[in-house]
């Protein structure tokens, strides 16, 4: 056998009975890859003395799990190169180490779980940051809303406190105008309220240097031509909208806005009027009693707009008030501001720590994905050369860690949110970006807590839930596609027929919300009780429509939906009892025991691509997916994936 082992050719066949993965073994391929050189996987022994010495000194260890330190002479048959067997076991150990969890990696190689520690630290810091920002945002939104209510009482004629509470169903009708005189009276009321701003309890002032009344602006949006002759059903109409704005000085309060517009030759034609707006500004300072002794006051400028909406031309002009808050730089007590800087510094330090931790998490996860990609390239080429087959799609997909992809996404969101939060708190932004910042931080924090499921999945009890969702996801998606088609039919039908007569079906969005609430058994009686009785056929249709939808979705669709999830749960329980289905990659990797983890067989440096240069990394990334064969069967020169193999074999 020793003589034959010295003379085997480069294209000899490997005996299927010499290793534990015999059903995977095929012919050694003569083809090469641009990712790995041919001599890495299947090359003859260069020298006879080296081969003889290697086989004489090889005291390999083999067990039922297929772990072999070095193939012993007794395990080799004619045509079986020891170097090829060693490479196979090396690749197997590398893959086994790759698929270990952080605890197993620590036991096998004393590799500190940096990513796990970073994620724990990130959860703590991000949650602290979110709590502080949520408290500040709530106070800010509550402050602007309270000011909007105060402005409504000061500048809106006929405003009532019952409109300040959002109730369902609404207890009052729409806030609207129905007479032409009321339109001008409402504008005069707002102008008078602005002129007597000092009567307000709030610390409101004019946005002028001498605190004198600022000029207000009235804008009219009209159709270019819009004349209606209702008595003979005729009209003159040009749909192009023109905007006309007039400045209202302080003396308007004495003559009235209607007379002032007449003097300016401005005629208000309600038949062509689309909308009108009255715009003015107010400055104020917020002492923030809720912020504590270290919170500095904030200065704001409220841009107030009173909108008259007449676009429907249905005899009802809707009236509303909007107040847009813009933060200003305050010039207050210098001593207090210096004390308040301590609070700002602490918040800035927290923001900086979150930024640094998220950047570190992003770098670690990106590096892990990149290394997984390199190992995937090596494994694909290994299967081509050793087993003369392509790695299956399921096997390739196992190298893609979607948890890391989710962590990368939430890191980006948290970095953007933290940067925006720092600018808000340092008052570098004058526009209101609280909602945008809360969106970034909120979704990022949500995904951070979702990421904890990855580490709970290392325990069987928690992993059952994750595996059940993963197993049921494709079936749930297909089921929802069919269920949504039926749901869409009911939604469009209800919107079209019941929309004019039922408040819950006024729009497609409210119709969908109503149907979803009915599926969950919410507000059923109110939906039935508000049915229209305008016509008998309409009442009968409403009854048939609601009963059929509720019965179909509650008793049939939801039951089937639950059964899909339960079927996946039963399948996972069977997998735990009888074994999980394995791909060709997992079949090659095999199993490992606790003794293997502590035996030291994983202590050798198997991550050769960690020592590759940047140019080697770029070369592998560019060539792994696109270059499957070499021209004319010649392998390129250069380092292989196992740079230390020759020295070991020698």
TrEMBL record:
Keywords: Cell membrane, Disulfide bond, Endosome, Ion channel, Ion transport, Membrane, Transmembrane, Transmembrane helix, Transport. It catalyses: Ca(2+)(in) = Ca(2+)(out). Residues 142-330 form the Mucolipin extracytosolic domain. Residues 1-10, 53-65 have a biased composition (Polar residues). Residues 1-26, 39-84 are annotated as: Disordered. Gene3D superfamilies: 1.10.287.70. It is found in: Cell membrane; Endosome membrane. The chain crosses the membrane at residues 349-370, 399-419, 439-456, 476-498, 544-566. One of its GO terms (cellular component) is endosome membrane. GO terms for molecular function: NAADP-sensitive calcium-release channel activity. InterPro entries: MCLN_ECD (IPR049134), Mucolipin (IPR039031), PKD1_2_channel (IPR013122). Residues 440-572 form the Polycystin cation channel PKD1/PKD2 domain. It is a multi-pass membrane protein. Pfam families: MCLN_ECD, PKD_channel. PANTHER family: MUCOLIPIN, SD02261P. This is Mucolipin-3-like. The lineage of its organism: Eukaryota, Metazoa, Ecdysozoa, Arthropoda, Hexapoda.
